[in-house]
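Dear support,

I submitted the protein below through the web form. The confirmation email said the job was done, but the results page showed an empty box. After a refresh the structure appeared. I'm attaching both so you can tell me whether what I see now is the final result or a partial one.
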Amino acid sequence: MAKTPPAVALLGHHTQYTGHARSATYRWFTDPVVCERCHPDGHGENSRTAVALLREGE
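What the results page shows now:
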């Protein structure tokens, strides 16, 4: 997604990440702060969706 002002307002500013942390999926599984943004009831579904999207790209 382009880093337009609306995208940054919606998703946040993520250009500071380097290495594996550049991946939102990586951060979902490794950074507790990322999970806190989502209601706990949705964590399982979000995790399954993230993994399915990774597998789809194989």
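Response: this is the final, complete result; the empty box was a page-load delay. The mean pLDDT is 89.
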